[in-house]
Amino acid sequence: MDNLIQSELFKLRKNRSFWTLIFIIMGLAAAFVVLSYIDSRMDQEAEVKGIDYFMNTIIGNNYMIKFSLPILAGFFIASEYSTGVMKTIASSGNSRLRIYMAKLFVLSFGGIVISLVLPFTLLTIGTLLSGFGELPDGSSLAYVLRVTGLTFLYAIAFASIVAVFSTIFAESGKTIGMGLVFFMFIDTILFLLGNFAPFVRTIDDNMVFKLSQEIDALNMDNGMLFKLIAVPVITYIVLGSLGAWIYTKKEIK
């Protein structure tokens, strides 16, 4: 298993789409902070602090993760079916369960790295230009750590979803297209269905798609925090198991 993970990590390091996504997000974030800083100085407005950039971008970062992961999965996993690499790996003597879990683990790691780029680029450059700043209750560091941990969990939950897509479609184009369409419309579909079927609304309220929009709350009770932690973990386990089952039954050509 260790050798499989090391092999997948090596491929991730060499994956151009992974680094392209990172540099694009980093460049956009850096440009946004610098332009905002220049604009505030020219208009003699109060400078936005690093922690404010961080707090205000968490929800937007969720969309960045959702749209980046299908692209990464398409070029990192699904493309191996068309190039014949997947067939070679599947016939290497390792169990398909181990192969899939290694790929999911490294895809999740890639998702975690991507999830850090936007908020921490904004936080770092904003802090360098205008200072770190403070939240109203003075718990800025605790807030950053809590949100970062939750961001990790939702990044791997979304990774488990796109990993299933890459296994089902086995083509980079279809994986990217279906992944993007799914994440763009799943919230709207669940909302509309919830208007006709109350149980769908209950399900939606307890799924990663809607809960991911709650992780930036300044204050939350222990019950809400437990839900925000438990749901992505359960999602990762369930979708990871589903993807592994599909992969073990799949005919690889």
From TrEMBL:
Transmembrane regions listed in the UniProt entry: 18-38, 63-83, 104-129, 149-169, 176-197, 224-247
One protein family per Pfam: ABC2_membrane_4
Keyword Transmembrane: yes
Record keywords, A-Z: Membrane, Transmembrane, Transmembrane helix
PANTHER family: INTEGRAL MEMBRANE PROTEIN-RELATED, MEMBRANE PROTEIN
Protein name: ABC transporter permease
Lineage: Bacteria, Bacillati, Bacillota, Bacilli, Bacillales
